[in-house]
Amino acid sequence: MKEGEGKHMNLWQPTSENIWQGRNDLVEADNALRIFQTIKQPASFSPAKFPHHIALLGFECDEGVKLNQGRPGAKLGAEYLRQALANLASHDGHDRLVDLGNIRANPGELCEAQAALSEAVFACQQHNMKTLIFGGGHETAFAHGMGIYRAFPTQRVGIINFDAHLDLRNAPQPTSGTPFRQLAHYCQQHQRPFNYSCVGASLAANTQALLDEANHLDVMIIWDMHCIASLDKVQQQLQDFINQLDVIYMTIDLDVLPIWQMPAVSAPAALGVPLERLLPLVQLICQSKKLQAVDLVELNPLYDMQGMGGKVAARLAWQLVHWWNG
């Protein structure tokens, strides 16, 4: 651990060398490439060497999920998602991926781990890298969001959260259910606007207290039913939101997908927003030229079925990197 090293960066570890493996088709043609063959994997945390690339970081943490009374296992999600992504074909944009390793949480030390991830994100953004984080529970979002707010102190930052849950809980300590309330509090403290949209939220999964908090914070909620019934209208709502911003942080809680596509989460969705409906919305954001940061969170391999959740998450990650420009 060298560059960007802070008091918490001793939690950093390189990705295991055996993670990036797949089928070798180079005998067929020199451009028959897969992700494991084009991803860059430096030996140290070195964002200064890779400007204009995408920093891939894992957040091996489910301390927030445990505190939110969820099912632990998301700390295994980052490596699981890398393995599912490794063998997919490498096309435009995928060669920009640089694996900068993992932040691994110590048991019971959520805030320490979040501080380490925030420092890593800030260092990457300072060196003109975009950040792609594989969580971890949704406590990932507080750390990632803090890194973005710090990196862009004068810009209009907006958060687009694809999620069945608003994650605005009022709790005595931070959890995977509190990240956006925490970020709202940070914005209030620093006289910054809190621009937050939650897309794919389930009315059945959010209490009236959470809706009251969302109303208080002027959150733009786009319900799961609307994403299914009127995609054109939702795209226009998102575009209007994007037009007001300079920088976008997109966070995807995989429990926004229906249980039959994504069983591998702490709280599977009975309805959800199917991948074929989610992808056009993700594309809109990726091609906005304002997207600086993305995370995919809550992938829990312990509850996957026949690798289904891993494959769906990998296709989503693959697709957004392919579309990501600006």
From TrEMBL:
Protein name: Formimidoylglutamase
Annotated NCBIfam families: hutG (TIGR01227)
Gene3D superfamilies per UniProt: Ureohydrolase domain (3.40.800.10)
Cofactor: Mn(2+)
CDD domains per the UniProt record, alphabetical: Formimidoylglutamase (cd09988)
GN (gene name): hutG
General function of this protein: Catalyzes the conversion of N-formimidoyl-L-glutamate to L-glutamate and formamide.
UniProt catalytic activity: N-formimidoyl-L-glutamate + H2O = formamide + L-glutamate
GO terms for biological process, alphabetical: L-histidine catabolic process to glutamate and formamide; L-histidine catabolic process to glutamate and formate; putrescine biosynthetic process from arginine, via agmatine
Gene Ontology MF, one: formimidoylglutamase activity
Manner of cofactor binding, per the entry note: Binds 2 manganese ions per subunit.
Pathway the protein contributes to: Amino-acid degradation; L-histidine degradation into L-glutamate; L-glutamate from N-formimidoyl-L-glutamate (hydrolase route): step 1/1
EC main group: hydrolase
Source organism of the structure: Xenorhabdus poinarii G6
Keywords assigned: Histidine metabolism, Hydrolase, Manganese, Metal-binding
Keyword Manganese among UniProt keywords: yes
Family the UniProt entry places it in: Belongs to the arginase family.
Binding-site positions, Mn(2+) 1: H138, D163, H165, D167, D253, D255
Binding-site list for Mn(2+) 2: D163, H165, D253, D255
